[in-house]
Design brief:
Blueprint lengths: L5 H7 L8 E2 L1 H5 L2 E2 L2 E6 L2 E4 L11 H6 L6 H7 L3 H8 L3 E5 L8 H15 L7 H25 L3 H26 L7 H15 L4 H13 L22 H8 L9 H29 L2 H47 L15 H7 L3 E2 L3 H6 L6 H6 L8 H14 L6 E2 L1 H27 L1
Parallel strand pairs: 1-5, 6-7
Antiparallel strand pairs: 2-3, 3-4, 4-5
Helix pairs in contact: 6-17, 7-8, 8-9, 8-13, 9-13, 11-18, 12-13, 12-18
Length: 442
């Protein structure tokens, strides 16, 4: 992987006297879609037009409008040399010298990242991903062979559905690493394998995933900037959002009961309903016909493997049965790290603090690492999004020490405690909403 050392950052910070200088307060005024500046290592960039060409989506740039995006830039981009070729055209000036320095915590984070690079934690073990992909294919083949060999009785359908849901969930974890460009040095190679795993094997849409997931990492648990917790009035999360919504009379559901209807909504419906709708909406809105073409290869494969056994409606129902099982697995694994943590409006936190207040870990074992796709190391993953998942456990003691040094809370829980905390936090948020609503009407 291409990397950037702290020395390289210092070199980049050599500023030209020919460019104007700005205070951070002046840059902060340029935070609108039609007037968008960001700061990277003391340099000011006008990204108003570039945001619409940004591979990670325009919203990431807009969400950092007027802010210092140095550590986000460092964490997301492997090939800094390539990216700087675009940045040179956007450079408009420098931050005034007395405000140019990053905080000690941010500089220490860059030293930590450099240490992780030097220790080889960003290097990929190709055999890990070869075995990972092989086991996904074998589990799916087993699921199909059960139906072909033993028929379509109820126990065959159940066992086959579990196999296919398992294969699909594990493929989701694999595409997650590929989508973060953690698997290959080449962006093009990563993109090809992302198409293969997410579009062909899973029937998803790579560009849709990038659009959502990069925003999540850029501002985790920040209301209206993280799509994973901005849930269109279906739930109220955190401690402040429920109060604000109740005061403004927003929402239309009995949120004090959300910890109960959660079981009937997000786990069973996230994949079968919402993701299908959202992907189709994205494809049509963005005219993303290339990803749509890739997706059709999944359904062609499904037709030859499954539809010939059941007919159209039978295979349609079996498809959604497998997605129903997968949806439960995915929902609990992904939400246990975030919903119980702080959820609020943007407080402009520095990168390390932003990642720790919105994420937590789940204890590790060989089974839990497999079951969660290494997303139980959520703090390490949010610190270093492009680090291969199989190396998170190596980085963990260093991240713990960093958090201890800078007074950041490092939370790790047993699996079922993490599951329970999802429901507990939703119940507490719902009660806050109800109490505020009652006070408003008294």
């Amino acid at each position: 992987m291409a990397t950037t050392s702290l020395a390289a950052v210092t070199t980049e910070n050599t500023h030209s006297n020919r460019k104007p200088t700005y205070t951070r307060a002046e840059v902060a005024l340029h935070n609108k879609r039609d007037d968008l500046w960001i700061i990277i290592y003391g340099r000011v960039y006008n990204v108003t037009k570039w945001a619409y060409k940004h591979p990670g989506g325009k919203e990431i740039m807009q969400n950092y409008g007027g802010e210092d995006a140095s550590l986000a830039f460092e964490s997301f981009h492997n090939n800094k040399k390539f990216v700087r070729g675009h940045m040179a055209k956007l450079y408009i000036g420098d931050i005034v010298e007395e405000e140019r320095e990053l905080s000690e915590m941010c500089k220490d984070f860059l030293r930590l990242r450099e240490d992780m690079i030097q220790k080889g934690f960003f290097k990929v073990n190709p055999w890990y991903y070869i075995i990972f992909l092989t086991h996904i294919v074998l589990i799916e083949v087993l699921g199909v062979l059960i139906l072909w060999r033993y028929g379509t009785g109820w126990w065959q359908l159940l066992l086959s559905g579990i196999c296919i849901a398992t294969s699909q969930t594990q493929a989701g974890f694999l595409q997650h690493d590929i989508g973060h460009r953690s698997v290959a040095n080449s962006t093009r190679v990563n993109r090809f394998f992302h198409d293969v795993v997410f579009n062909f094997i899973k029937g998803g849409c790579c560009n849709w995933w990038n659009y959502r997931h990069y925003k999540h990492h850029a501002k985790p648990n920040v209301y209206k900037k993280d799509p994973d917790i901005t849930l269109a009035y279906l739930y109220v999360l955190g401690k402040n959002i429920p109060v604000q919504m109740a005061k403004k009379g927003l929402g239309f559901l009995p949120y004090n009961q959300q910890h109960k209807y959660f079981f009937l909504t997000m786990p069973p419906l996230l994949f079968p309903v919402y993701f299908h709708y959202d992907i189709m909406n994205y494809l049509i809105r963005n005219k993303d016909w290339w990803d749509a073409l890739w997706m059709t290869t999944f359904f062609i494969r499904w037709y030859y493997c499954i539809q010939t056994l059941f007919g159209f409606w039978g295979s349609f129902l079996f498809y959604f049965f497998a997605r129903f099982l997968e949806s439960h697995w995915f929902t609990w694994v992904t939400q246990m790290n975030h919903i119980p943590m702080e959820i609020d409006f943007d407080k402009k936190r520095e990168w390390p603090e932003l990642q720790t207040v919105g994420t937590c870990n789940v204890e590790s074992s060989w089974f839990l690492d497999w079951f969660t796709g290494h997303l139980n190391f959520q703090i390490e993953h949010h610190f270093f999004p492009t680090m291969p998942g199989h190396n998170f456990y190596k980085a963990q003691p260093y991240v713990r020490e960093f958090c201890k040094k800078h007074g950041l809370e490092y939370i790790q829980k047993p699996l079922f405690t993490a599951f329970r905390d999802v429901v507990r936090s939703m119940k507490e948020s719902g009660e806050l909403w109800l109490e505020t609503k009652k006070l408003k009407h008294d």
